[in-house]
Give the backbone structure.
Amino acid sequence: LVLDFLRIDMNFPKSKLQLLAITSMFISAKYLESGTPKIEELIKTGENKFSKEEILDFEQKILTKFNYTIEQGNALSFLETLCLLFEFNEEEYCIAKFLLEITLLDISFEKYNDLLKCFAIVYISMKINLNSHLNYRAIFVYSSQAGFEEKVVKACGKDVLYLKELVMHSEEYTSSKIKLQNRIKEIIEKNLNKEMEMEFDD
């Protein structure tokens, strides 16, 4: 929602980015969560820089800018749906979510549809877990039904793999993450061999 708003209003002042982020959280929660957070909680999140009236006024501004049409689908909800569909275990889900998170580090992934990106990530996650019970070819059956050909999913997947290599060799990244993500790093480095990466060139 924040990125969509900034694409519409390229001259948005940096001084109000925090207000935009907080208000976007408020709107998103109304669409995606079972309960809406109290405005008082959002005010605390913003270190009491903004009043209740400012948040509500800015909510109106955002909704007006989007003509009250907010996309409810998002990358995480798509990913969770696919993981449920393919019966991912906890480790497989963590790998998929990890890959999704690192795509947020590179603005070049904005060119990819969220659903396409999730198909590619689920495919890679299946390939990483070489001992998995999952049939990774099945992902292309579903992706084609959604309008994405196998070669398109693989092209997106190849970009994810390239970004993964950059991120995992970043000292700043590995030193700031928790043990679970280091464990995921070990799993990926152990199982993701060159043979798999070459497949994307087929």
In short: The radius of gyration is 19 Å. Residues 117 and 198 are 19 Å apart (CA to CA).
